[in-house]
Each structure stands twice: as C-alpha cells, then as structure tokens.
Design brief:
By secondary structure, this protein is an alpha+beta fold. The protein is about 20% helix and about 30% strand. The protein is built from three helices and nine strands; from the N terminus they run αββββαβαββββ. Strands 1, 2, 3, 4, 5, 6, 7, 8 and 9 form a nine-stranded mixed sheet that branches. Strand 8 and strand 9 form a beta hairpin. It is globular, with a radius of gyration of 18 Å.
Length: about 190
C-alpha cells in the first residue's frame, strides 16, 4: 500500500471535497484484480477477478460518482467491538453525516448496530439482511406460500424489518430506518 497511499488518499480527499452527493448513497465493495504478493490479498470466489485487494466505496446512487473510498488492509485494522462491515461503512460516511442522506447497503453490511450508529449520525439505512442474523424473528423466516408476497412488520426503536417472499420458499428480509409505519396505498 505504501507506493500508492499518498496518491490514493489525495484522490479520496479531492472526491469528498469537490462533490456533493444527492439524497441517496450506496455502499459496496470492489475487488481490484491483482495476483501479486501482499499481506491483505483477498479471495472472493463470486467476483470476476477472484484474487486482489478489496476497496469499499460510498457512491452517489444517481450519478455513481465516488463520494468516499477505503482500501481493506486486514481485519486487525478496525476498531475492536465492531464487525468489519460496520466499521467499513462508518469509515466511509463522515463526509455525508448529519445531512439526512439515505445509505443503501446489501446483506454484507446491513445490521441493527449499523442502523443505530447511522441514526446517531442523522443518516438513514435501507438494506437487505442475511437470514442468519439473531435479531430476525423466526416467524419472519417461515416457509412462504406459493405465489404470494407476504409482509410482516416489527417496530423496535423506529426500525422496520420487512420479510418479503417473492418466490415460493424464498425470503428476503429488509431493514429500514426510513420507514417506520405501514402505509396503505390509496387508489
């Protein structure tokens, strides 16, 4: 990381200083393919380049412009007590915190502790959750009826967990701090 650290950090600072994102931002990771030798090389089998270094990115949802970025340099480089994905998101959001922006994440990042941390920074979280999270009630993961989309709400601390069954026996669980009550569609 030493040969490119200075240039990389200047690039990220310039992105943060010279662009104001819209109301929605997205957090995701990118695996930059590289097979050389370095201590923080990642192997992710479902990526096009299976080996390389992982870069966490906060981007504007509409323009896809990079707002902030961080290179993952190993699990020992984050704050103790926080999972790596939660710490990655918290490292990316300081440039947009306090501005009521919506942060959208996938199931790698989304968790209730992250939602609480982002709420304290006046940010909104919307994302899918992994089904093995302990905070998801077992009734949310029951078998889905064929062809029906089912909804169930659980409000605790102004969070909404929403299980949706788009296909038979498939559940997707959403976590949102944006939506705090069920609203019927008018017609």
């Amino acid at each position: 990381m030493a040969p490119i650290r200075n240039i990389y950090e200047k690039f990220v600072v310039a992105c943060e200083a010279n662009y104001t994102p819209g109301t929605g931002c997205t957090v995701d990771e990118y695996l930059h393919g590289f097979r050389g030798r370095f201590s923080f090389k990642q192997y992710i089998p479902n990526k096009p380049s299976k080996y390389g270094f992982k870069v966490y990115v906060l981007a504007d949802s509409e323009t896809f412009y990079l707002v902030s970025s961080k290179i993952y340099t190993g699990s020992g480089t984050h704050s103790p007590g926080l999972p790596v994905p939660t710490q990655a998101v918290l490292d990316l959001v300081p440039s947009v915190s306090g501005k009521s922006r919506n942060i959208t994440t996938d199931n790698y990042y989304t968790s209730i502790p992250l939602a609480m941390e982002l709420k304290s920074l006046k940010l909104i979280l919307v994302g899918t959750m992994k089904k093995n999270k302990a905070c998801i009630p077992p009734s949310f993961l029951a078998k889905a009826d064929e062809g029906r989309v089912q909804y169930a709400f659980d409000h605790a601390n102004n969070f909404t967990l929403l299980p949706v069954a788009p296909n038979k026996n498939k559940r997707v669980v959403f976590l949102s701090t944006m939506h705090s009550e069920k609203k019927e569609r008018g017609g």
